[in-house]
């Protein structure tokens, strides 16, 4: 980008996977409209739309949290008692900094706290990167001979990875660069959380939901 003042439109999203009869959320989104206003976000609640693909949030089996920033974890209290997968570092941060309802949910659920790597259901490889936040993580998976990575905020837009350019906000440049570089070299398909392209390039299920696979 030539002009750093340029306004870039981004999305604030999360992923849902159905695998082996399980419903899995990868991050949760958020719903506080005051916070949305502070960040200049046009907030769109998708709870009604979600009913097209999920009967009831209480039936969600697992919630994988890439990191504890509000836009990734704040809706955690909408779920009943899912299994939660999160890095040990961001779990500790969440218990310290998140709202009371998120803390309570974390304490009430079965939580897998990951120090380095965790394989979930023989498909998803949760890996702590620690570039964007201390314990920020990504999720690798392979399907039909394609390698994907759900990037958390280690990569904001697909272009970060495609052009091998690190993100702008991080706690460890080195960890972020190592992740981006390796993913780029291996030709992984990035699934980031803030890229409107994801919505433009995939098939529409309803107004704010697209199907990727
Ligand atoms: Zn973040």
From TrEMBL:
Recorded superkingdom: Bacteria
Pfam families registered for this protein in UniProt: Lactamase_B
Protein name, entry field: MBL fold metallo-hydrolase
Residue ranges annotated for the Metallo-beta-lactamase domain, each copy included: 10-194
Residues passing through the membrane, by range: none
Family: Belongs to the metallo-beta-lactamase superfamily.
Species whose genome carries this gene: Paenibacillus sedimenti
Role noted for this protein: Counteracts the endogenous Pycsar antiviral defense system. Phosphodiesterase that enables metal-dependent hydrolysis of host cyclic nucleotide Pycsar defense signals such as cCMP and cUMP.
InterPro entries tied to this protein: MBL_superfamily_lactonases, Metallo-B-lactamas, RibonucZ/Hydroxyglut_hydro
SMART domains, per database record: Lactamase_B (SM00849)
Catalytic activity of the protein: 3',5'-cyclic CMP + H2O = CMP + H(+); 3',5'-cyclic UMP + H2O = UMP + H(+)
Recorded GO MF terms: hydrolase activity; metal ion binding
Cofactor(s) the protein needs: Zn(2+)
Keywords carried by this UniProt record: Hydrolase, Metal-binding, Zinc
